[in-house]
Each structure stands twice: as C-alpha cells, then as structure tokens.
Design goal:
Helices cover about 50% and strands about 10% of the residues. The strands form four sheets. It has a four-stranded mixed β-sheet. A three-stranded antiparallel β-sheet has the order 3-11-8. Strands 5-6 form a two-stranded antiparallel sheet. The radius of gyration is 26 Å and the shape is globular. By secondary structure, the protein is α+β, with helices and mostly antiparallel strands. It has two domains: about 40 residues; about 500 residues, Orthogonal Bundle (Cytochrome p450), CATH 1.10.630. It contains 21 helices and eleven strands. Strand 1 and strand 2 form a beta hairpin.
C-alpha cells in the first residue's frame, strides 16, 4: 500500500471516529425530542396560543441579542399584543411558562389554597431571603403568615403615624439641596427614606441615615434585584458554574454582605433590648398616649380595602398581646418557644425589609413623577390638603389620612399603571382548566400573572393608558372584576404589608407636597421601564422641585 493510500485510510478512520459519535448523539437527541413532543405535558402546552418555537430550544431564540432589562420588557409587551389573554412559551421542551391576563383565569390561581407554590425562579432569592414568607410554602408558610399578619393590623399601624411624619420631615430636609436644580432622581431619596422608616416602624430601631447604612442597603437591594432579574432571562446564568465564572456570584456576595449585615445588626440590637425589658420592663407613656389617641381616630373611617368588603387575615381583630411591631413579636414568639426560630426570624426580617421598602420607594417615585407631569391632578391634591391642614405645618394624624381620599385615588391609579410588582409567578401542582377558553394548563408548568398588562386591559379600564385617578371612584370600582386590580396580589398570598404601604405613602407624599411643588419635563410616553423584580424607570425618576409658599393651591 502506498503512502497516499495509507493517508486516505487514516483520514477515513479519523472521519468515522468523529462522525459516528455525532450521529449517535443526534439520534439520541431526536428520540428524546420525539418522546417529549408526544408527552401529555408538551401536547397540552402546545395547544395554548403562543409564538412559534424552534426544535430543542423552544422560544429561547426570541431573547437573543437582548442586553438590558428595559429591552426584555419591551419585547414581552410587543409579543403580548398578539395574545391578549393567554400566551405560552417554552424554554427547551421541558420548561413551560404561561402568561395569564384575564381576571377570570387569574382568580382561579390566586384564590386557590392549592396553587400557592412560587415558581422555580424564586429559588434565586434563596441566598438572600432564605425560606422567608416570599418563598416558603406549605405548613411553614401558613404558620409564619398566621404569626406575621397581626403585626400589620391597623391597630398596630396607627402607632406608626408619628414615625411616618418624622421620616417625611427628614425627607423634606434632604430634598432642600435639590431646589433650583434642573432635575434629580427622586428614587435615591425615597429609597433611603423607606429603609429608615421600615427600620423605625416594623423593626423598631433607630434610623441609620447618619452613617449611610440605609442608603447603602437600598443600593445593594437594587443591584441584587438586577442580578436576579438577569438570571431569569439569561437562562445560562441559572447554571451555578457559569454564574460563578462570569463573576456575578462574587458581586452578589458583596451585596449580600451589605444586606445581611444590616439585618443581623438590627436583630442583635432588638434582641438585646428585649432581654433588658424582660429584666426591667419600662412603659413608654408617650407611646401609650399616642396609641390611645390614634385608636379613637381609627374609628372615624376605614382605608381603601382591595377586598371591597371581604375580610382577610389583616382585618381580623387581634388581642393586646399581638398588638406589637413585627420584629418585637417575632423575638418574643421565639423566646416563648413558638413556631419560629432565630434563623427563621432573620429570613423573615430580610424578606420584610426587601418587600417593605423597595415597593413603596418605587410607588412613591412614580407618583411624584406623574404629579409633576399632570399639574391639574397635583392642584386637586393640594386643594384637598388645604381643606385638611389649611396653612398649618402640623404633622398629619391618622384621622387626616382618612380624609386624603383624592390622594388615595392618585396612589391607586399610579400603581395601576406602574405596579411595583409587575408579574407574579406560581408553579402548578395540579392541572388547571382556564375560564377564558378551552385551555387546560398541565401540572408542573409555571403560571406568570402579568399584573402590568391586566391593569391596562381596555375591557376593564376605559382609556387604560391614561392617568385618571377617577378610575377609583366608588361607583367605577363597584362593577370591576376583583382580580382586575392586583398591585398587592390577592387571595391567600396577598401582600401582608399592603395597609402599611398605603398609610406610609399617604403621609410621606402629603408631607413632600405640602412643602414642594413637583415639576417634570418628561412625558409618560418617554418613560423607559425595566421590570427587574420591582418595576422601575431605566432613565431614572427625574423631577424638579420648587418651594411651596402655602399648602393652599398656588
């Protein structure tokens, strides 16, 4: 055999050694693909309306080239135009997610005591929140929810009015340096304020703004949300080796050190105070007097209640012993051998700190931006505040907040258009028959409830893109589907702090508006939105402020 012939033989053998494995792998993948395509799960999923898929990768190709959070939201909204009620999507052929936008379908999921498991994406919160109320499920979730809910009862929240006022005044002082400037990002100020407020109220410790801990915490939370959001749509980052390789794991650890450092410090301090009180109890007469005053004021009216007459665990009366702030009750319960351990307290503190500040910071930031754009609406708010306060600079009382009916509608309309939590995701344990069509969702799929889209449904809200606080007049709310407005979610897993949020927003915003006129040169059509866990503006919440000479309309 010649040298040339030998070379040809070697080349043929080499080609075969490469070709055979490729053929074998291709055959195996083809068999797996065929098997998956003919499984009940995939067949049911493919009956749902949705964009075309590609073999093996499903709809993953649709996010190729997307590099930012606002681009992913723009893409999602673009796709949703073709599917007004139900959209299915595939990651490969094993992960099915279904977007729901019809209130009738949403009611089936959110009102259920069976479908309470959060989707697998929430596991990315675990290093941060552990098994806190946001993530936990089953008996642990039920026990902790039952324990925590009374700490956000109205009888507890009324005692926070003085602290809400104090932090509102602190915010006013911080904003003074922005007077006369072309514009500034209000969100940074509101984030720091909501952290400090949460620490003083729910956690019962002194605010930390003097050493910048509140601001550092808020910034770390924002960056953690961005990391988690990137891992939801850049699916390769869900793999831990890749997550570590690109350096994001190291960055996440730095932010977690900041976040957990503050929560651990708060718990340690509060636990020390608890043990001292146990040894030598002291009654704070000022707080006791304030409580009795606000207790009487509370009987003069009620807050907006999304349940519209339906009672839930935030409406149940609680005994004297449970009329305690969140962290106080957690520590006392643990010391008394209740259902929560010291480690679980930390998980719940981290959860409440995150959910209690970032959502209200976003809601208040959007509200100020919209009032800056809609001067006529701001004028109506000021007319109402003048009716309540006149030219007085006295702090707001609980009774005052009950009179802020127009401001309340402004807040509710703001979080209709810009819900702080734009989507809610659940993992189905059982098949679910939808109400809006002949569709059956298979057990194991992820249901994504598109709050942002539901709130802009023209069948529910006339002129849904228009900012109109009168959408929340009683007569307009009366015939609206209950699950057509879900900024605080709904059902068994509804937001435990929704009444806390409304009270804080009223006092915080009214305090700012009594001191400053808000102006914005940026139209709503120019907002660049990003849904990195909490809905925010990529372009920043830029406003201008002018000193207000009087509470009376200018």
């Amino acid at each position: 055999m010649t040298t040339l012939e030998e070379a040809e033989v070697v080349e043929a053998q080499s080609s075969s050694s490469v070709l055979y494995p490729i053929l074998i792998v291709t055959a195996i993948l083809t068999i797996i693909h065929y098997w998956r395509e003919n499984s009940r799960f995939v067949k049911l999923g493919n009956k749902l309306p949705g964009p075309p898929t590609l073999p093996f990768i499903g709809n993953v190709h649709m996010i190729f080239g997307i590099t930012s959070s606002n681009e992913i939201m723009e893409k999602a909204l673009e796709i949703s135009k073709d599917y007004p009620r139900v959209i299915r999507g595939w990651i490969g052929t094993w992960y099915l997610f279904v977007f729901l936008m019809d209130p009738r379908d949403i009611e089936i999921i959110l009102s259920s005591h069976v479908h309470i498991d959060k989707s697998v994406e929430y596991r990315m919160f675990k290093p941060w929140l552990g098994d806190g109320l946001l993530i936990s499920t089953g008996d642990k979730w039920r026990a902790h929810r039952k324990l925590i809910a009374p700490t956000f009862h109205l009888n507890v929240l009324k005692s926070f009015v003085g602290l809400f006022n104090k932090n509102g005044q602190t915010l006013v002082q911080r904003l003074k340096k922005e007077v006369g400037k072309p514009s500034f990002d209000a969100h940074d100020y509101l984030s720091e304020t909501t952290v400090d407020t949460l620490l003083e109220t729910a956690m019962g410790v002194k605010r930390t703004s003097q050493d910048g801990e509140g601001y550092d915490y808020a910034m770390a939370v924002m960056k953690m949300c961005d990391i988690i959001h990137q891992r939801t749509y850049k699916v390769w980052l869900r793999l831990e080796p890749i997550f570590r390789l690109v350096g994001m794991a190291k960055e996440q650890l730095q932010h977690l050190n900041t976040i957990h450092g503050l929560s651990s410090k708060v718990i340690k301090k509060k636990k020390g105070e608890f043990l001292k009180r146990k040894e030598s109890p002291v009654i704070n007469n000022y707080e006791a007097a304030e409580y009795l005053e606000t207790e009487k004021e509370a009987q003069k009216g009620t807050y907006f209640d999304q349940s519209q007459g339906l009672k839930d665990d935030l409406d149940d009366d609680v005994g004297e012993k449970k009329r305690m702030a969140f962290l106080d009750l957690m520590i006392e319960s643990a010391q008394s051998g209740a259902v929560i351990s010291d480690h679980e307290i930390k998980e719940e503190v981290d959860t409440i700190m995150f959910e209690g500040h970032d959502t209200t910071a976003a809601a208040s930031s959007f509200t100020l931006c919209l009032l800056g754009i809609h001067q006529a609406v701001q004028q109506k708010v000021m007319d109402e505040l003048y009716q309540i306060f006149g030219d007085s600079d006295r702090p707001a009382t609980f009774a005052d907040t009950l009179e802020m009916k127009y401001l309340e509608r402004v807040i509710l309309e703001t979080i209709r258009l810009y819900p702080p939590v734009p989507i809610i995701a659940r993992q189905l344990k059982e098949d679910v028959q939808l109400a809006s069509g002949d569709y059956l969702l298979p057990a194991g799929c992820t249901v994504v409830i598109g709050t942002y889209k539901v709130h802009r449904n023209p069948e529910i809200y006339p002129n849904p893109e228009e900012f109109n606080p009168d959408n929340f007049l009683a007569e307009k709310m009366q015939n609206r589907h209950y699950y057509g407005y879900i900024p605080f979610s709904a059902g068994p897993r509804s937001c435990v702090g929704r009444k806390y949020a409304m009270l804080k927003l009223k006092i915080l915003l009214s305090t700012v508006l009594r001191n400053y006129k808000i102006v914005s040169d940026i139209k709503e059509s120019e907002f660049k939105l990003q849904a990195d866990i909490i809905l925010k503006r990529t372009d920043g919440f830029r406003i201008k402020i002018e000193p207000r000479r009087s509470v009376k309309a200018m």
